[in-house]
Model the fold of this input.
Amino acid sequence: MSEITISLLYLASAGTFGASRLPRYSVSANTLLLAAYILIVIGLFVHSNYLYESSLIKSGLSLSFKNIISMVGLELALISLIAAFQTTLRGITAGLLLLGAIAVAFGTIIEVIINFKKVTPDLITLSSQLQFHILISLISYGLLCVGAIVAIMMLIQEKRLRASKLSAISNLFAPLETTEKLLFNITALGSAGLAITIWTGLTFVENLFAQHLAHKTFLSIFALFIFGSLLVGRFYAGWRGVRIIKLYLSGFILLFIAYFVVRLILEQVLNRSWS
Done:
């Protein structure tokens, strides 16, 4: 029931944020915004409490797919709340909340329908250093996941502008320059977190090769290199447009493979533990 409640709260908030950007609802925009803020704050409270009870428990740390994906959904909602304070980003806020709701529902569907095999117990006891490593890893991935969504929105916006397709829906998009700045801010924060994740993994994880984590580490380092190149190109060469979108999405795909595809293959195909 908690997952349904969280998803409905995020969906309702996404709808009201999106409506507040449309000209036909301009008269009631302030009322819609108030309702949207109330809904998202309640959703974040319920979601945080749910995740605390299901994953961050005293006897250990639950690393099920459902909890990991739900944590990404929580980050999507939290970043959308921050973005909502800038008027032009409220359309993006609506999109992030929609995806946050989908993430919560999708995590539950994965656990119930797909029924992943349990090669290791979901509940594991870890040292404080490894718990820090895992939490930073998930936070960083969540940030970069938000960046991928923003990059896709930028790609859609670029195509609409080149095709001169302007309509009421265009109000949901922020100015392209604003969206670019948001993407680079997310890239900088996410890359910093990813660098810390790689460093703590190399420092705190024992027998890296024996635990089948070497490929995950190499892919993460390669992704970090791509994100770093993107930041350098932005600051020193003024990279913009489709080039940065494609470069960002390339780095994110590598990271997605490192975080999820590798685990899926290890557990479902090779019947080995991912950690």
Summary: Residues 128-162 form the longest helix (35 residues).
